[in-house]
Design brief:
Distance between the termini: 26 Å
Helix content: 40-55%
CATH superfamily of one domain: Nucleoid-associated protein YbaB-like domain
CATH topology of one domain: Ybab, Chain: A
Shape: rod-shaped
Radius of gyration: 18 Å
Number of helices: 2
Largest sheet: 3 strands, antiparallel
Order of helices and strands: HEEEH
Length: about 100
């Protein structure tokens, strides 16, 4: 590998590291059941919060389904956010282990 290619590889690595750090501060939210359940997830796919409206406590089966739906939707949004950020850097080139 020549010097120029090494420099480009190092720059790409630095940009990818920065993007992954930035994902820690990004947050996505999903709300289901007309706002009965709301889940917030970080760009690194960590659940930040779960909010449940009081009226939902009366229907445990429905509440469980709503929590699962909101969590899955928020995780999908966070995964897409990470993909979009990393694709902007890599030009869509898939690098194993990034997402």
């Amino acid at each position: 590998m020549n010097k120029n290619m090494m420099k480009q590889a190092q720059q790409l690595q630095a940009r990818l590291s920065k993007a992954q750090e930035d994902l820690e501060n990004e947050v996505v939210e999903a709300s289901v059941g007309g706002g009965v359940v709301k889940v917030t997830v970080s760009g690194k796919l960590r659940i930040q919060s779960v909010e449940i409206a009081e009226e939902a406590a009366e229907e445990i089966d429905m509440l469980q389904d709503l929590i699962m739906a909101a969590t899955n939707e928020a995780m999908d949004k966070a995964h897409q956010l990470a993909q979009d950020k990393l694709n902007a850097i890599t030009g869509g080139f898939k690098i194993p282990g990034l997402t």
